[in-house]
Amino acid sequence: MEVTKTIFAHALKKISPTAEEVVSNQIMFDDIRKFIKQKFSIDARLMGSVAKNTFIAGDKDLDIFIFFPPNTKKEVLETKGLLIGKSVFKKFGGIPQVSYAEHPYTKGKIGSFDVEIVPAYKITSTKKLISAVDRTPFHTKYVLDNLKHPDDVRLLKKFMKTINVYGSDLKTTGFSGYLCELLILRCKTFNNLLAHAQKWGYQEIMDLENSYKKSEYKTVRTKFKDQPLIFIDPTDKNRNVAAVLSKDKLAQFIYFAGKFMDNPSIDYFFKIEKPKDQRQILRSAKERGTFHIAIGFKRPADIIDDILYPQLRRFRRRISDCLKHEGFVILSSWEFGNNECGIAFELLNQTVPRFRKMTGPRIFDPKKNRDNFEDKYEDIWFEGDSMVAEVRRKHFDITSMLGSFFDCDTKALADKGIPKNLAQEIAKNYALVEGKDLLKIKSDDFWKGLSKRI
């Protein structure tokens, strides 16, 4: 226990913001708030970890919400919200970009600050939600009213960042800052949370406000189907705060929480990763005796990560299904989307037999079914009581099979189940990359994915 306390104290000394940081954040926000009020007569409030005092030293994220009356038309909120956001960046010397949640908002750098100007409706209860972002002020108030140990949240966030499970964007599919705060509220301390995590089951339910009776938990699990952790939003019982969290990120957290408890180390907060040489990664991959191939194409223009990565995952699942159906054995697969776009596979085989066995109806099935099978295939034999035939494959190596799949226009690709944004780029130009040519891929996502699998 003393070792753990020493580690926590050392970590907190490095990650706790200084008084100067707190003041500079507040001054920047105050200046922006006054400008918005004077020029547009709109109220602005600070949200996020800075407002809740759970931010880590060096983080300068100012999430600024501007509030419109509930009767404001959506088109007006969006248009005026962007106007105000762009005006703020112009006034304070920043360069804005438009991003999208439920509606567009502006974000970008102002000096050393990462600033977001988010339009929202000013509502009095989450029962009167007009847009998803309207919950945020209620989240902020709940945490400020209840959180007694912000330093434990800082420890949790830093631990999660080090093990790469922090971030609720749809690229990361990890833990959000708000979920971290609620986990500490639930377990009181970071250390307690690590211990609690070892006892979690699949679809563990946490409900701070007892919004549901235990007799209702089966219904709750059905309501939040396929979501591996369920933390009921204390401000809105119909929302799971952990909805974005993926199974693998949850698994990683539970695993490393257990490892830390077994052998506490400061490395779980400040692990220094040595950069890996791409040629060495490729050599290590080759030594496995497996086959690696990537399907690469240009990243679609004007698409944000929260749209791109779910589409890349859908694309990867679709191609995985095709490969498995043809007899290819996939060991692992992953997507990449920074700089270049694509999906990659590690397989046990790059070829399959030239003939594929087709199992038909049983001898006890209707004669019409048996006749149809016999009309379709030439040489028929029986395995047990089932009719069996062979069919010659059109393609028996992975390169020709994938080439045949992708060599068509956008509509045909979309009809095959490829998301339209990706289908458009693939139809223009794509590359099947294998062997030494993998070194031509410039995406960090690709190399991180490959290095995890060797």
Give a verbal description of the structure:
- This protein has helices spanning 2-15, 19-40, 48-52, 74-91, 136-146, 150-162, 177-187, 190-197, 217-223, 247-262, 267-270, 278-287, 305-325, 367-376, 398-406, 410-415, 420-428, 444-451, and strands at 44-47, 61-68, 95-100, 104-110, 113-121, 204-206, 229-233, 236-240, 291-298, 330-336, 340-347, 355-362, 380-383, 386-392, 430-434.
- The chain has 454 residues and is an alpha+beta fold.
- It folds into four domains: 2-124, Beta Polymerase, domain 2; 147-270, Orthogonal Bundle (Poly(a)-polymerase, middle domain); 278-351 and 395-451, Alpha-Beta Plaits, CATH 3.30.70; 355-392, no CATH class.
- A five-stranded mixed sheet has the order 1-2-5-4-3, sandwiched between helices. A four-stranded antiparallel sheet has the order 10-11-9-15, with helices on both faces. It has a three-stranded mixed sheet with strand order 6-7-8, sandwiched between helices.
- The protein is globular.
Key descriptive features of the protein:
454 residues, alpha+beta, Beta Polymerase, domain 2, Poly(a)-polymerase, middle domain, Alpha-Beta Plaits, 4 domains, five-stranded mixed β-sheet, four-stranded antiparallel β-sheet, 18 helices, 15 strands, globular
Beginning-to-end CA distance, first to last residue: 35 Å
**Widest sheet: strand order?**
1-2-5-4-3
Q: State the domain count.
A: 4
Number of strands: 15
Brief account:
The chain has 454 residues and is of the alpha+beta class.
What topology emerges from the helices and strands here?
Blueprint: H1 2-15, H2 19-40, E1 44-47, H3 48-52, E2 61-68, H4 74-91, E3 95-100, E4 104-110, E5 113-121, H5 136-146, H6 150-162, H7 177-187, H8 190-197, E6 204-206, H9 217-223, E7 229-233, E8 236-240, H10 247-262, H11 267-270, H12 278-287, E9 291-298, H13 305-325, E10 330-336, E11 340-347, E12 355-362, H14 367-376, E13 380-383, E14 386-392, H15 398-406, H16 410-415, H17 420-428, E15 430-434, H18 444-451
Parallel strand pairs: 2-5, 6-7
Antiparallel strand pairs: 1-2, 3-4, 4-5, 7-8, 9-11, 9-15, 10-11, 12-14, 13-14
